[in-house]
Amino acid sequence: EVQLVESGGGSVQAGGSLRLSCTASGFTFGDFDMAWYRQVPGNECDLVSTMRTDGSTSYVDSVKGRFTISQDNAKNTVYLQMNSLKPEDTAVYYCAPGAGGGWYACLDPTFGYWGQGTQVTVSS
């Protein structure tokens, strides 16, 4: 069974850093593109960063230059290094594999294996 476990969140002051981890099981991790999403309660849930199996990456404009996605196939883990954090980065962060060359919408119920997410809180 597919399982995704996000961790590494916490409370930091603006300008601080966190590294999120998402450890996957139940599928051949290295064969899948991976993505990070975030949801602010009561607001939209957004795709934040992606990493394809060829190593190419993408970022939403608001995090470019501050966040870095990476993965360790030997550990079945994808990371999100978050630097220069801002209060607007406060959200619950989730990961998910790609969907047939594209990406699931954030918390799309057609992907039935969303993890519990990890809370990031950035204070000013």
Which short descriptors sum up this protein?
124 residues, mainly beta, six-stranded mixed β-sheet, 0% helix, 47% strand
Task: Kindly summarize this structure in a few lines.
The protein has no helices and ten strands. By secondary structure, it is an all-beta fold. A six-stranded mixed beta sheet has the order 2-10-9-4-5-6, with no helix packed on it. Strands 1-3-8-7 form a four-stranded antiparallel beta sheet, with no helix packed on it.
Set out the fold topology.
Layout: E1 3-7, E2 10-13, E3 18-25, E4 34-39, E5 45-51, E6 57-59, E7 67-72, E8 77-82, E9 91-97, E10 118-123
Parallel strand pairs: 2-10
Antiparallel strand pairs: 1-3, 3-8, 4-5, 4-9, 5-6, 7-8, 9-10
Q: Which class do the helix and strand fractions yield?
A: mainly beta
Number of extended strands: 10
Write the H/E string, N to C.
EEEEEEEEEE
Percent of residues in helices: under 10%
Number of separate helices: 0
What is the 3D shape? globular
How widely separated are the two ends?
40 Å
Low-confidence stretches: none
Q: Radius of gyration over alpha carbons?
A: 13 Å
In spatial order, strands of the major sheet run 2-10-9-4-5-6
Strand content: over 45%
